[in-house]
Design brief:
By secondary structure, the protein is an alpha+beta fold. It has three domains: about 110 residues, Orthogonal Bundle (Butyryl-Coa Dehydrogenase, subunit A, domain 1); about 110 residues, Butyryl-CoA Dehydrogenase, subunit A, domain 2 (Beta Barrel), CATH 2.40.110; about 150 residues, Butyryl-CoA Dehydrogenase, subunit A, domain 3, CATH 1.20.140. Helices cover about 50% and strands about 15% of the residues. The chain is built from eleven helices and ten strands. Helix 4 packs antiparallel against helix 7 and helix 7 runs parallel beside helix 9. The longest helix is centred in the middle third of the chain and has 37 residues. It binds flavin-adenine dinucleotide.
């Protein structure tokens, strides 16, 4: 029994994802990492289970799950393979949600059913080489030319950018006004068949090696005018708003990575013998396990409390950043402890914990670094304190 009070449906989704992850993901995760191999067949399998349409309503052929069910599934998938979880998190939290929430009827009808079925994988292109944390300073330009927009610029760090059929791209439409911030940036639906769309650098990463990360160059890329999402000039607001949701997904991924390291450590402690007994009998090692388990449970509880608030329609910017910050720093800490518990064997690729540690690191970086989460939490906390005359009961 866990601390979360789950409905029958939530337990069913959790079980489905756990069985799938244990059966299909865990056994080959190390091999995919060593070969830096994105596994399209794995995406097809997950699509057959409905995991590519978890947050897409049934009218567009998705499962229409609540936020908590989605996050429970993501955690289980991340226990099996963190790269599968990031693919699901980006696809489900960002491009599909942006089309659902801000797209028009025709865009929803065109893209969502095929994305729910997993025929089209979605990606998210906000970052640029010179615009990371400061996304509002992005430079890619979109200029209207008749019934097209012409895009020029470089998008960086696009997760599975070479595997995606639908890429939600933020570009500056108000090119006359160099003001930074949310004004003047719009969102476009790109597809790789567009003229002037080029995949360039594939990053050689420390972790998440089976999830390709691409640079995309847009060179006079002609995008039909009906690919503009929502209102012109609102693109950054849409992207940052969607990240409230995305950050919960990354928190779930981090909890899953940490749990994989905890489970591996618990097994190893009872098998490894030194000084004539299992290292599990040493209190110093037991205390590590106790702290790992406690932090993971705290992270999951914060995450699901934030998700439940989101489900009730509350604004969760502060709690979503808290969940992302705490869960990802927990994942980094827990995986580092796991390597320590394994000793020298933790430092080599024969065992999975060094991969968990490499995979955990990036969760503190993408969808807003830990520093950016702290900035958001401080800003939101100050605002909440001002609004509540200084008292902050929750
Ligand atoms: C594997 C991977 C996958 C990614 N996938 C995607 C994707 O699919 N789509 C996408 O759009 N982007 C993606 N990103 C980009 C990611 O979101 C950025 O890397 C991240 O936002 C940080 O930007 P940056 O790397 O430019 O670092 P910078 O913004 O240059 O930050 C460098 C350092 O300075 C700190 N810093 C910056 N500003 C402040 C400040 N105001 N106060 C205090 N400290 C500050 C940062 O916290 C960091 O420690 C991905 C990145 C990686 C590594």
């Amino acid at each position: 029994m866990g601390l979360l009070h789950l409905t029958d449906t939530q337990q069913e989704i959790q079980r489905l994802a756990r069985d799938y992850a244990q059966r299909e993901l865990t056994p080959l995760a190390g091999e995919r990492d060593r070969e830096s191999r994105f596994d399209r067949a794995m995406i097809t399998q997950m699509a057959e289970l409905g995991f590519l349409g978890m947050l897409i309503p049934e009218q567009y052929e998705g499962l229409g799950l609540d936020a908590q069910s989605y996050l429970l599934a993501l955690e289980e998938i991340a226990v099996g393979d963190a790269t599968a979880a990031v693919t699901l998190s980006v696809h489900n939290s960002l491009p599909t949600q942006m089309i659902l929430n801000f797209g028009n009827d025709a865009q929803r009808q065109t893209y969502l059913p095929r994305m729910a079925r997993g025929e089209w994988l979605g990606a998210f292109a906000l970052s640029e080489p010179e615009a990371g944390s400061d996304a509002g300073s992005l430079r890619t330009q979109a200029v209207r030319d008749g019934d097209h927009w012409v895009l020029n610029g470089t998008k960086a760090w696009v997760s599975h950018g070479n595997e995606a059929q639908v890429i939600l791209c933020m570009a500056r439409t108000d090119t006359a006004d160099a003001r930074r911030g949310s004004k003047g940036i719009s969102t476009f639906i790109l597809t790789p068949d567009l003229p002037g769309f080029h995949l360039t650098k594939k990053e050689n990463k420390m972790g998440l090696r089976a999830s390709p990360t691409l640079q995309i160059v847009l060179d006079n890329c002609r995008v039909p005018a009906d690919r503009l999402v929502g209102e012109e000039g609102k693109g950054l607001t849409y992207a940052l708003g969607s990240l409230d949701h995305g950050r919960l997904g990354i928190a779930a991924q981090a909890v899953g990575i940490a749990r994989a390291a905890l489970e591996a450590s618990a097994r190893y402690m009872t098998e490894r013998k030194q000084f004539g007994k299992a290292i599990a009998e040493f209190q110093a090692i037991q205390f590590k396990l106790a702290d790992m388990a406690t932090r993971i449970t705290a992270a999951r509880t914060l995450l699901h409390t934030a998700a439940a608030a989101k489900e009730r329609g509350e604004r969760v910017t502060r709690f979503s950043s808290m969940a992302k910050l705490f869960a990802t720093e927990t994942a980094m800490w827990v995986t580092t402890q796991a390597v320590q518990i394994y000793g020298g064997y933790g430092y080599v690729t024969d065992y999975p914990v060094e991969r968990h540690m490499r995979d955990a690191k990036v969760t503190e970086i993408y969808e807003g670094t830990s520093e950016i989460q702290r900035i958001v939490i401080a800003r939101e906390t100050l605002a909440a304190a001002a609004a509540a005359d200084g008292s902050l009961p929750d």
